[in-house]
Each structure stands twice: as C-alpha cells, then as structure tokens.
Design a protein that fits this description.
Helix content of chain B: over 70%
Largest interface: A-B, 41 and 31 residues
Number of helices of chain B: 12
Number of helices of chain A: 9
Number of strands of chain B: 2
Largest sheet of chain B: 2 strands, antiparallel
Order of helices and strands of chain A: HEHHHEHEHEEHEEEHEH
Strand content of chain A: 15-25%
Shape of chain A: elongated
Helix content of chain A: 40-55%
Radius of gyration of chain B: 21 Å
Strand order of the largest sheet of chain B: 1-2
Radius of gyration of chain A: 24 Å
Mean pLDDT of chain B: 89
Low-confidence stretches of chain B: none
Distance between the termini of chain A: 32 Å
Shape of chain B: globular
Structural class of chain A: alpha/beta
Oligomer: heterodimer
Low-confidence stretches of chain A: none
Number of strands of chain A: 9
Mean pLDDT of chain A: 88
Structural class of chain B: mainly alpha
Chain lengths: 243, 282
C-alpha cells in the first residue's frame, strides 16, 4: 500500500494514512478538540500555516466552530465523530481507514458524515477504506466492495457486479386494478397483499416482463428495483456456507 | 481545499526538532488535562502522601523510643527522608503495566500503532507533563509536612543539581521497566500478578518501604546491583544523605546504565510482542 508493506509500519507510510474508529475516542477527553488537533499537528509535523488553513477549512465545512471549543466529554456521539474525522484529516492522509464511522448515529448525522467523507475523497483523490455493517454507508461511499468471511475474500469488485454475480434478479412491484388472477407467468410471486404484487424476475427478463405487465394488466403503479444490498450480502454468506 | 499532501517525506523533516515539538505539545496538553481535573488530581496526591506519612510516623516513633535513633538515623533524618521520598514518588509516576493491559485488551492500541510515533514517546511525554501540576500541588503538602515533622536538611548546591537530574533518571528507569513488564500482556492478557511481584521487590529493594541502611549488609549489596535502588533511594540520598561527589556522579552513571538496559529490554520485547497484537475490543 502506497509503496510500503503495512505490517512494517514505516514512518513515511504511517504519516500518509489515518484511522477513525466509530467506537473509539482518540481525542483528549477533558479538553476541547482544538487541543487534540494541536497534538496531531505535532505528531504528524504539519507545517503550521497548512495546519491552520486546513483545520479552519474542515471546521467550516462541517460547521463545528462552536463544538471544537467545548471539552470533548460534553459532545454527543455524532458531534464527537465529526471532530474525530476532522482530527484524522489534518495531515491530509492519502488513505483513510474508517471503521464503522456511523455506528450509533442518527440518520441525519450518518448522511452528513457520508457526504463529508465523499467530498474529502473527491477533492483529495484519497482512498477511503470503509469497514461497516451499515449497508447505507457502503452504497453511499464504495465503488469497490470486498466481502470477507472468516478471513477469506468471498467477493472483490464493484457494488453493481456484486449484485449481478450473486443476485441476478430484480423485483417488480405492481399495484393492479385487479390482482386476483394467476400471475405466475410473469415471474416468481414473492409477496402478495391485495392488489399489490411483488415479482422476482431475472435481470435480463425485466424489460420484457414489465412491458407484458403494462400491456396485459390494468397497472395503477409499477416499481422496478435492484435487490436490497443487505439481501445480496446475505446471499454471499449463504452461498459460502453451502460451499 | 488544496489537494497537495502536507505530509512531506520524513527525510526532509528534522527528526530531533519534530520530537522536541511533540514532547512540548504533549506535555502542555497533559498539564491542561490535569488542571481540568485538578480536584481529582489533588485528592489522588493527598492519598499518595498517606503512604510516606505512615512510614514517617512509625519510624519517628521507633527512633524516639530507641534513644533518638534507629540504624543511625534520627527522627529529623527520617522526616527529611520521607518528605523527599514524596517528591521523588511524585516525579517517578509512570504509565503502569495496568495501562498496557487496558490498551491491549480493549484494542485502544490500534489507533496509536497507526501513528508515525512509537507509543512510548506519548507515555514519556504525557507523564513528564503531568509532573508539573503534581509537583505544584505537592509543594503545600511539603510545607505542612516540614512544619509538623521538623526534618533535618544539610544540602549542597551540587546535591540539588544532581537531585534535579536523578529524579528524571528514576522516571526513565521506572518507565522502561514497567513498560517492558506491561508488554507481557501481548502474551498473557493480564499482568496484575507479575506487577504486584515487581512492586513487592520495589518496596523492599528501592528504599521505598524503609531506608536501605536499615537492611542487613547482604540485602543492601543485592539492592545495589538491581535497578530499584536507583529509582528511590539514590535520588532521595542526593538530598538527605551525605554522598561524596564521586558517589553522586557514580549514582547518575548507574541510572544511565539501567536506563540503557531498560531501553534494550523494552525494545527487544516490543519487537516480538507487537507481532502478536490483534486489534480487538468493544
């Protein structure tokens, strides 16, 4: 990674990476985050003008000007995560490791953190290594997904390819004027609630089945969706268990 | 945001200047942190003073009842010994093996291992900074102890100077000894029993429990060849003893020796220990 062997933990390598752990506090608990930022400046030997400029810029981007002046112990989990992330980016790491960065956060805060990480990655052309059980994090941030189970890589590729490989089907949910008849010719009926019927159909068949439904049925509403990423991941593990 | 990485190649950065900057910043942060919790720090310090005060009262009473001296030490010399003892103890507080146990067990070490500085630097700097408020808080306690117990002091400027160096020598020796002990947690998860054994040896052979001159000659000889003596008895004796210049400088040389040995043992254990680390925790 970055031309180094990570296990050797060479200084030049460690100066170019950063780690944020969702369930760990790396800031000075009793002091304002600004003091922890100063400590990070000294650890990474960031030139002061660069440090001040980037610190102020990141604080403004996340709108945490008032938070960084409060003792860390007084911050909520979400507020603390914001300042943790700013602290971890002050030396402009080229690889950022995020370990469950949104764990325990409310949905608004999760979204904010994801947007910020995506912005940082885009602007700095940095690599973000995200470990998460939240599939929303994965969908929002990851171009490449590696599924690891018991130390074995089960999949390595982009998110769309993962779905294509493991779950090569889509769901079509239709609300019909009259959903009482036999609809099994369109695909596997996986859910039926009155006139709302959900089919599972092979991806290659989706367009044809959709066209048939619209032509042959009185359709009030129709929705075509990829399988939820949670289901896809579950299938990967299930397939591994069988193999 | 500009996209140029700030982190220049290490060769371009003056390593020593970087370390000095890190140590000063960390020490300043430690001082701020201690003042944030000043009431707790003071209570901790008062609790710590209980240990030498008990020794002092016991030995002063024995001296009074034994015709004024015990092992050649008067009540006033005992008072001086334990008042300086308290200052030395305040100065040689270090990150204990329990701290390492917690770091390893809870996975707290993970973040520190991914920083471009060895965790030992953080421990050294942090506890060095913590001494500033601890010593400041200790001074009024020392005044009270002096007024109550009437210590006997006869100090030369050279002894004060050597004391100033010796307390830091004691700090370094204890840091590396206890860190090497703490690293055993990489294999055992718990280190409490071993640490207690270390403390017993330290109590007996460092002059922490009683001045070493009260022990038989053979115990004093053993103590001379072990590191413990140089972390308590020697720094205390620089102020309350009657050491010659050669003994003062020889003591400092022994501290350098044990510091180098400590660094060597710690470095060796670390090399093997770190390979065993697996990031776990809550």
């Amino acid at each position: 990674m970055l031309g180094h062997v990570p296990s050797k933990r060479e200084r030049d390598f460690l100066r170019r990476i950063s780690l944020v752990m969702g369930n760990r506090n790396q800031l000075q608990w009793g002091l304002p985050a600004l003091d922890s930022f100063e400590l990070n400046r000294s650890i990474y030997q960031i030139p002061r003008p660069d440090f001040v400029a980037l610190r102020d810029e990141l604080i403004a981007l996340l709108e945490i000007g008032d938070l960084v002046r409060k003792p860390v112990r007084q911050l909520s989990l979400g507020e603390r995560m914001k300042v943790e992330i700013v602290g971890s980016l002050l030396h402009r790491p080229q690889v950022l490791f995020l370990d469950e960065p949104t764990i325990g956060l409310d949905v608004t805060m999760q979204k904010r953190i994801r947007e910020f990480v995506a912005l940082y990655r885009q602007r700095h052309e940095a690599t973000v290594m995200l470990t998460s059980h939240y599939m929303a994090d994965v969908e929002a941030l990851c171009e490449r997904v590696i599924v690891i189970h018991h130390g074995k890589i089960l999949f390595d590729g982009d998110l769309a390819a993962l779905a294509d490989t493991v779950a090569a089907w889509k769901t079509i949910a239709v609300v019909l004027e009259n959903g009482a008849g036999d609809l099994s010719t369109y695909g596997d009926v996986i859910h039926r609630d009155g006139d709302l019927v959900t089919f599972r159909v092979p991806k290659a068949e989706t367009a044809r089945v959709t066209a048939r439904l619209l032509a042959e049925q009185d359709v009030l509403d129709l929705n075509v969706e990829d399988p939820p990423i949670e289901d896809v991941i579950e299938l990967v593990f299930a397939r591994e268990a069988v193999e | 945001m500009s996209t140029t990485p700030i982190t220049a190649p290490l060769a371009q950065v003056n390593r020593l200047r970087s370390l000095v900057d890190f140590y000063l910043t960390t020490m300043r942060t430690a001082v701020q942190q201690q003042f944030q919790y000043r009431a707790a720090t003071y209570m901790y310090l008062v609790g710590m003073v209980a240990e030498p005060v008990i020794y002092l009262v016991v030995w002063s009473t024995i001296a009074d009842q034994s015709g004024g001296t015990v092992g050649g030490l008067t009540a006033g010399e005992f008072a001086a010994y334990y008042i300086v003892w308290t200052l030395v103890r305040t100065m040689n507080i270090v990150f204990t093996p329990y701290g390492w146990e917690w770091r390893i067990r809870e996975g707290e070490l993970s973040g520190q291992l991914l920083r471009p500085l060895h965790p030992i630097h953080y421990d050294l700097a942090w506890f060095a900074g913590g001494k500033v408020p601890w010593v400041l808080f200790y001074l009024p306690i020392a005044v009270v102890l002096t007024l109550v117990f009437n210590p006997t002091f006869d100090v030369r400027p050279l002894e004060v100077a050597v004391f100033g160096v010796a307390v830091w020598g004691a700090y370094l020796i204890r840091t590396f000894n206890q860190t090497a002990l703490g690293l055993i947690c990489f294999w055992t998860t718990r280190v409490g029993a071993l640490f207690q054994l270390y403390i017993v040896l330290e109590l007996l052979l460092s002059g922490r429990l009683v001045p070493l001159t009260l022990f038989p000659e053979w115990v004093q000889t053993i103590a001379w060849f072990l590191p413990f003596r140089w972390t308590f008895y020697f720094p205390i004796q620089t102020l309350v003893g009657d050491l010659t210049n050669a003994e003062l400088l020889g003591g400092l040389a022994m501290q350098v020796f044990w510091t180098v040995v400590g660094i060597g043992v710690f470095s060796l254990v670390w090399r093997y220990a770190i390979r065993r680390y697996t990031a776990v925790g809550n």
